[in-house]
Automatic annotation (TrEMBL):
Taxonomic classification: Bacteria, Pseudomonadati, Pseudomonadota, Gammaproteobacteria, Enterobacterales
Classification via Gene3D superfamilies: Hotdog Thioesterase (3.10.129.10)
Pfam families: ApeI-like (PF22818)
Protein name (database record): Putative fatty acid degradation enzyme
Domain ApeI dehydratase-like: 10-103
Coiled-coil spans in chain: none
Amino acid sequence: MKPHEIERHQAQANHLEIVLHLRADLFWFRGHFAVQPLLPGVAQIDWAMSYALTLLAPGWRFHSIQNIKFQSPLLPDNRVTLTLNWQEERQILSFSYQRHDGDARHTPVAGRSAYVGKLFSLRVDPLLQPRRDDAGRAGAS
């Protein structure tokens, strides 16, 4: 269900850019919509979270999204760059997609947060902390 990955750039441990080709035969394009297939926003969010959890923030989980905005559709056979920026100390992941149109890039998906501008923000909780009961014992549910 993921797109074809063309290349990956990671100059810093908390910043990643992945160039993707949105193949026309991707599951996500089926039935969304018949006249002009569009990549659903849920797919774009899923890919950002999946890459982030695997490559930037293992051991964390996402629990909310702030200020999401889809500005322009992503279509079959588009080439896009997914940019991820993980701020572990603030427990925030920012991400955006830029569609390639020749040499130009356009941002079809954006959100807004106080610290970054036009990027998505996802807050996370650590997965590895055990639950505790009222007495402070680990393993309680």
